[in-house]
Amino acid sequence: MMHQAIRQTYVGAMRKGRDVARKTGVLEKLEARPTRRNLWLRSLFAIYDFDDLSRLDLPWWTFDAVREVDSFLRARPDARVFEWGSGASTLWLSKRAGQVTSVEHDGEWHQMVQGRLEGVENVTLRHVAMQDAGRVGSRKAGFAGQHFDRYVHAIRDLSGEFDLIVIDGRAREACLREAKARLAPGGIILVDDFKRRRYREAAEQSGLKIRRLDGLAVCLPLPDSTALLSRV
User: Fold this and answer.
1) What percentage of the chain reaches a pLDDT higher than 70?
2) In the chain, domain spans
3) Is the pLDDT of residue 2 over 50?
């Protein structure tokens, strides 16, 4: 609860700061010179704001990961992407990949994102709700007693392999096990928030090659970590 209260206070402060920055012309100046530093500073005001972050054309990963995935997809304009956890990244991916399937557990968030994706023809956004019973739980606070079996296994409803698989939702360790079996040759798996020990341990146990990209992260005032995993 304390963590949530601090987060809400910080986000509220950034909203007020954005209003001031807009009135004083700071936002305009940052957007006029889109260097990495300026984009990072500008993104701080877009935290938890889908529309603002989408307007900046940024997914919520580290900037090094954004650069690497952008380069990866530029070389594969017909890439097939699967994503656990929808958001601004879904729209960003749609502009760079051939086909994107994104799975979301939160019904209200799914509805909001679906509205923002109206007219985007290469994205399939699915809502797969939590279950009261099952084998796949989440270790995230607030999700005790909830299970994500159908959510994790949603990738099984599709045939074929994926060039890029993004793991940025719930039950990420279980998602990684599913993703490994569906990765196309030369493909990559992105795991966000890689500072969390349970994600690092799952990646280390996967047998995949890990490339950790630490540093400035979109929307965050402190450095973060995103990892790209591939077959050895």
Assistant:
1) 99
2) 2-49, 63-230
3) no
- Which one-letter amino acid corresponds to residue 176? L
Instruction: Give pLDDT tens digits for 127-180.
Output: 999 998 898 987 777 777 889 999 999 999 999 999 999 999 999 999 999 999
Report pLDDT digits (tens) over 18-40. Answer: 999 999 999 999 999 999 999 99
Dihedral (Cα; 9, 11, 13, 18), 10-degree rounding: -170
* The model's pTM: 0.95
d(CA 97, CA 3): 36
The CATH architecture to which 63-230 belongs is 3-Layer(aba) Sandwich (3.40)
Residue 177: phi and psi, rounded to 5, are: -65, -40
Dihedral (Cα; 176, 179, 181, 187), 10-degree rounding = -120
Strands (E), the chain: 80-84, 99-104, 123-127, 162-167, 183-192, 209-215, 224-230
Handedness of CA 95, 210, 67, 199 (dihedral sign): positive
Give the 3-state secondary structure of residue 226. Answer: strand
List of residues 6+ apart from 32 with CB closer than 8 A: none
